[in-house]
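W.,

You were right to be curious about this one. When I first looked at the sequence I had no strong expectations either way, so I just let the prediction run and decided to look at it fresh. Below is the sequence, 307 residues in total, followed by the output.
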Amino acid sequence: MNAKLTDNTAWDGHRPALSILIPFFRDDPARLLAALDQERAEGVEIVILDDGSGDAALAMRIAYQVNGMRTPARFVALSTNEGRSKGRNRLAGNARGKWLLFLDSDMLPDSPRFLHAYLELIAQDAPAVAFGGFSVDQAPKVREHALHRAMALKSDCAPAAIRRLAPEKYVFTSNLLVRRDVFETETFDEGFAGWGWEDVEWAMRVSKTHAIVHIDNTATHLGLDPARTMAAKYEQSAGNFARVVAGHHEIVSHYPSYKVARALKKMPLRPVWRPALKTIALTGLVPIPLRAFAMRLYRAALYAEAV
């Protein structure tokens, strides 16, 4: 795999406590990089990975931005796509900090002291794993993203008090702090393909030996998807869900998604009524609560094949 490295002038000789790791694939991470650099947090570095986007103009813009940042930064550009798990493992291999903060490229911190909050947590508690939370607070309200916004608000955007009830379930690589020694023991499973579940599966493994801390230090997911893209991602994720069920049945069997999938598996004629659920979810004239319900059932019907 050919990897082109671009280090800015602040990179050499820096010994960070915290490495911020950002993969991207055809998304523009410029806004996130600017926000992180503007915070001027001491003791951090940024490593960003272009996972084979094949967009020379985008890569050139990011390299130029990295060179102009005050925060020590490295840009790793790959010639071909490695995938979500392998790409994040590669990012960790380029990091020098004792703690790793995974951020998705379409995230944006909700607080001007976002990095400081993590540095304070590290200094006070030295957690093995911490998840800061997920929001849609800064995401523009546009009609084509209304379904995704509604579903995210119902499930993903839970406060820390709720997330602590099922610590491994609410772990996403969108805003995830990991101590290096923990990650060196448990990296992301590169057997996952496409979209979904590799972060939750990682948390299931880690939760057996380490506490997962949940705090309210959120970042906004700016990259909300149209309904059709959501459906396509769920379709991709069915195989990954099957992998989780096979490896962690004792945990996932308590999840509502598993229980609903089991119930739907018993229903006849799935190939007939499952497309109807998708049609309802994609129909813009249908009220959002009904579309969200149909989309959740459609996902569960896909997962029924795995349970």
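Here's what jumped out at me. The chain has a mean pLDDT of 93. And, maybe more interesting for your project: The chain has two domains: 3-224, 226-307.

Coffee later to discuss?

I.
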